[in-house]
Amino acid sequence: RRPPPPQSPLEKVAAQEGLSLPELAGKWFLVGVASRCSYLAEHSHRLEATAVTVTILDGKSLAISTFRKLDGMCWEIRQRYLPGQAPGRFLLKGRGYSSNVDVVVGEADPTVFAILYYQKGRSISVKLYGRSSRVSDAIVDRFEQHVRAVGLTDDVTYYFPTYGFCDSSDEFHVLD
Q1: Are 144 and 154 a contacting pair, CB within 8 Å?
Q2: What's the rounded Cα separation, in Å, for the pair 66 and 104?
Q3: 3-class secondary structure, 14
Q4: How close are the terminal C-alpha atoms of the chain, in Å?
Q5: What does pLDDT average to in each consecutive run of 10 residues of the chain (176 residues)?
């Protein structure tokens, strides 16, 4: 008999109970991210303020529009988070089999903050979003507890600028 496959780190993460998707709709700001992504580590000095708009589609999916600067121009990146196996869990389909991303809303007070987990393959990251570009120290502490719970550390945790946001992009700078 073969041993069972190792449990994915995301399987151990509980989704926020009683989450109402309409409460997630609206504008959010990316406050922080914890990830072992080598690109992020090499370019962390160039992080740009990032705003996100969430729209609820069909009552189950999330349409995500991310506005950020790239080489001084504002870009919009559009994604669709499809409903996952359980409430608070989503799937972001990539272009190939191994490029799908599992998403879990780990903790949220939709009027103030949301902590989301992202897993692609065996790699996991955690993001902190706020309804404003600054959140309280207590919320940052909670985010850092979630980060440590999945084995990430302070040296791979990055915080984003609180100024210089893009509110829109022109038609030539949209990535679907």
Answers
A1: yes
A2: 18
A3: coil
A4: 44
A5: 69 90 96 94 90 94 92 89 93 82 96 97 94 97 97 96 81 61
CA angle, 39 as apex, 119 and 108 as ends, to 5°?
40
pTM of the model: 0.90
Return the residue matching tokens 């946001």.
165
- Tell me the CATH number of domain 24-159, given options 3.30.360.10, 1.10.10.10, 1.20.1080.10, 2.40.128.20: 2.40.128.20
The label of the residue with tokens 């080598």 reads: 38
Structure tokens at 48: 């740009």
Handedness of CA 117, 118, 121, 124 (dihedral sign): negative
Length of the chain: 176
